[in-house]
Amino acid sequence: MSCEYRRFAVPLFLILLSIPPLLCQAPPAGSTPLNNKRILGILPDYQTVRDSSVAIAPMTAKQKWQLFFKESSDPFNLAGALVGATVSHIARGVPQYGADKEAYGERVGAALADGITQSFFSDAVLAPLFHEDPRYFRKGPGHGILYRIGYSMSRMVVTRTDSEHNSFNFSGVLGTMMGIALSNAYYPDRDINGSVVGGRFLSSFSEAATGNLLPEFWPDIRAKFFKGRRKVKSGASD
Q1: How far apart are alpha carbons 12 and 8 in whole angstroms?
Q2: pTM over cut 0.85
């Protein structure tokens, strides 16, 4: 195994940690199980609480681990990492592994590791530690559009705690920073500098901030344009 591939040993170890024995246990009574909702049957939406006006039990530490594992093994997220690595390879962007087939494989590995490690630190480690809920609690049509846009984008820095209060999103912000810091273990040396690391944090931050817009407004879009569409499976894709 080359030195470049050995760099992936740490994130691979974290991936293996995502299947602890607790995942085989049944959730405690009164807890809310993860659903299988998808937007248009494709985009994951199981991390969204669509009606936040209804009382909902906080996630257990086990369920936060389950959410991490579900996100990390989701085919859509894995395909997204593959597409991102392909675009980066064609454009010769970061990470700058090179231009051959081996470099492309390293880019794919880095893209997968980036997403998995950030989710690992945010959802599986820090969310239980800080007693924060990693789900997105939708506001819904009872509020104005501009308010909802501002609210959805603010969830990168503000989150809901297990005690149903708003708090600084320690798990989301620190988890992203820790995942990016860990990437220094497998990124090329030329990409381990302040400007590249800072740019990657801003990119991840922006994606997380805007990523809640579709879950926030999708039920409205569906109600307006897809009224007659039949669900393939109840609660599985809508």
Answers
A1: 6
A2: no
